[in-house]
Amino acid sequence: MRFDIMTLFPAMVRAVLDESIIGRAQKAGYITVEAHNIRDYSQDKHHRVDDTPYGGGRGMLMAAPPVYDCHAAVCAMADAALGGNVKRRTIYLSPKGRVLTQDYAQTLTEYDHLILLCGHYEGIDQRVLDEIVDEEISIGDYVLTGGELPACILVDCVARMIDGVLPEAVCYESESIACGLLEYPQYTRPAVWHDVPVPEVLQSGHHEKIDAWRLERARELTGVLRPDLLAAYDAAHPPKPKKKRK
Ligand code: SAM
């Protein structure tokens, strides 16, 4: 899968996405992440990309021409690399968009190519958004200074579900939210730390009991912190009817 990030601050997204698991996934060839500086496409002699909004108001807006030209160049580059005929989606990271969830991130894994557009200042001229953007995605109901961190979050969340990025699908399927519950508490060595022992059952080697303990803890925690999730989980996992005794 290929991600192209259109931004005024490419070093910011590279600093995040070239590290750790996503960085290794790029090196291993499971995903490609490219960052493009929208400023490189400015026709202005001072490389300006922003201007004041019509109608007045505070702040500056990113102008349409460099965003449009950057997008056209990114599409051409990706077509050359991927051989055209790819399933592509252009996403504008925006607080006005649909809020990103694990389920929605999973649907995005079906694309071969995601182009992520990061706004800055007061945002971007609506005309270019109408022309190039397929959808707007928000990472939550709060406002940040730019779309770079949201773009990194989206890449991280989607990429870890791409084959090969994590050792096995179960690594992301069994985690909080993805499995429908919040994850049970986990422990590692030492067996006793600050006088607190690891729960005995986890040291028993009895896998059925361990699974039952984990499910019970996950249900308890979810009931306290996210009763909405627990209700949805219970509705999707009704208890099995008990067999009648003859
Ligand atoms: N004036 C815009 C509004 O009221 O909707 C907010 C602009 S914000 C200061 C600058 C940029 O940050 C946006 O264009 C967007 O790319 C990004 N951004 C801010 N909050 C975001 C969020 N919650 N999710 C995704 N992107 C966000």
Layout of helices and strands:
Layout: E1 2-7, H1 10-17, H2 20-27, E2 32-37, E3 50-51, E4 61-62, H3 64-82, E5 88-99, H4 102-108, E6 113-118, H5 126-132, E7 135-138, H6 148-159, H7 170-173, E8 192-193, E9 196-197, H8 207-225, H9 227-236
Parallel strand pairs: 1-2, 1-6, 5-6, 5-7
Antiparallel strand pairs: 3-4, 8-9
Helix pairs in contact: 1-6, 3-5, 8-9
The protein binds S-adenosylmethionine.
Could you give a short description of this structure?
The chain is α/β, with parallel strands linked by helices and 246 residues long. The chain is built from nine helices and nine strands.
Structural description of this entry:
With about 250 residues, the chain is α/β, with parallel strands linked by helices. It folds into two domains: about 160 residues, Alpha/beta knot (3-Layer(aba) Sandwich); about 60 residues, tRNA(m1g37)methyltransferase, domain 2 (Trp Operon Repressor, Chain A), CATH 1.10.1270.20. The protein has nine helices and nine strands. A five-stranded parallel β-sheet has the order 2-1-6-5-7, sandwiched between helices. A two-stranded antiparallel sheet has the order 3-4. The protein has a two-stranded antiparallel sheet with strand order 8-9. Helix 1 runs parallel beside helix 6, helix 3 packs parallel to helix 5 and helix 8 packs across helix 9. The termini are far apart. The relative contact order is 0.14. The model has no long low-confidence stretch (mean pLDDT about 95). The protein binds S-adenosylmethionine. S-adenosylmethionine binds next to strand 5.
